[in-house]
Design goal:
The structure is a single chain. The protein is α/β, with parallel strands linked by helices and about 375 residues long. The chain has one domain: TIM Barrel (Alpha-Beta Barrel). The protein is about 35% helix and about 15% strand. It is built from 12 helices and 12 strands. The chain is globular and about 50 Å long. The protein starts with about 25 loop residues before the first helix and ends with a helix. The relative contact order is 0.17.
Length: about 375
């Protein structure tokens, strides 16, 4: 996602890595489990241990979108390209091992500086296993999952699509067949069939998403992220479609979607686009300037970016949603020729010795608030 220009000032911040923290959902689950055990008589526990359960298999665990705490790793100039998509810090000439080593350093930076556990990566028809770059780019996915990260692979428009629509269905399907075959046995890899399918009506997009799922029965529903309609702006329609039950939903929100609003208006707008689907929904694109000293901790700010970020992160926390910031690295903004002024990090170092410097500590504070850590 590219950003509309707004005149920035200057300033940067540094951040010290937080210690180990527990996630709110795990704390709640632990508390509930302990309470239940206290209420069960010892005799009942002994009987349960002696008699195996002959009942039906347990149903899948409910979706827990709040378990996704992460960032987008994009390519400079944004991910919309007719060529291979190459995230910032990687090079198309890198070998698989070099990509994996670079990615391992970047992923460790995401984990140590903000306690992230998820990275959203772009793919396109020239960046999947079976293509020259795709076979090497796979090292980034493998490095992330080996580090315990969730990966969300999302398709960005390339030569197989135009105007938010798929124009080459054969290339689109071949891409997804290659990606799902490569990672179908890796439960940490999730698939987002299309980023911002704005060329379709809500109903037509739901049909495409349902077909994608039907065509790939080896991929469990809970490893699929279905984009909201338009520019991922509303998930209520896909949430209501029973064909998409069990999938996660992807929501995007930016100030340039709506313009200037009060904090309460931001809260109301987001709530209307989520409905009662929060536990399935990951806000996997949202962001604001990080390099000009804005204080996102200021609850009294009259700055629209600050009101928006505070509302977005409050909404994520209140609705038990996941949140994946745009972008950690990469992206594009017309006010910055060499980096996206929404980018959370400056990439430093060289070769495979890469390090990250946080641009805004108050933005990190808001991410931690959203994530409940």
């Amino acid at each position: 996602m590219s950003h509309l220009p707004t005149t920035p000032t200057t300033g940067e911040g540094r951040f010290t890595a937080p210690g180990a923290r527990s996630h709110r959902r795990r704390r709640r689950a632990l508390a509930a489990t302990l309470a239940a055990l206290v209420a069960v008589p010892v005799a009942a526990l002994t009987s349960a241990a002696a008699e195996p359960d002959a009942g039906p298999a347990a149903e899948p665990a409910p979706l827990a979108a709040a378990d996704f705490r992460g960032v987008n790793w994009a390519m400079p100039g944004d991910n919309f390209t007719d060529g291979p998509v190459v995230p910032e810090g990687l090079s198309e000439s890198d070998s698989y091992d070099t990509v994996k080593a670079k990615a391992a350093a970047v992923i460790e930076g995401f984990a140590s500086t903000i306690d992230a556990n998820t990275v959203r990566l772009p793919i396109n028809t020239q960046s999947v296993p079976g293509t020259a770059w795709g076979d090497r780019y796979a090292g980034a996915v493998d490095a992330a999952t080996e580090a315990g990260f969730n990966v969300i692979l999302s398709y960005w428009e390339d030569g197989a699509s135009s105007g938010g629509r798929i124009v080459d269905t054969e290339a689109f399907n071949a891409m997804w067949d290659a990606a799902t075959t490569r990672w179908e046995s890796n439960s940490r890899v999730h698939f987002e069939p299309m980023n911002e399918p704005h060329g379709y009506s809500a109903g037509d997009w739901a049909n495409i998403a349902a077909t994608w799922i039907t065509d790939r029965p080896s991929i469990p529903a809970e490893r699929v992220f279905v984009s909201g309609s338009g520019f991922n702006q509303d998930v209520t329609g896909v949430c209501a479609d029973s064909r998409l039950d069990g999938t996660y939903l992807s929501l995007h929100s930016y100030t340039f979607f709506h313009g200037e609003m009060t904090y309460d208006q931001w809260m109301s707008t987001l709530a209307a686009r989520i409905g009662n689907c929060g536990s399935r929904t990951v806000l996997d694109e949202f962001g604001a300037p990080t390099d000009d000293g804005r204080n996102y901790n200021d609850a009294n700010s009259t700055d629209n970016f600050v009101r928006y970020i505070r509302a977005a992160t409050d909404t994520v926390r209140n609705h038990d949603m996941g949140a994946v910031y745009w972008p950690a690295l990469g992206g594009k903004h017309t006010q910055r020729p060499d980096y996206d002024w929404y980018s959370l990090y400056a990439l430093e170092g060289s070769g495979t010795n890469l390090t990250l410097r946080v641009r805004s500590t108050s933005m990190v504070d808001r991410l931690h608030h959203a994530w409940g850590i």
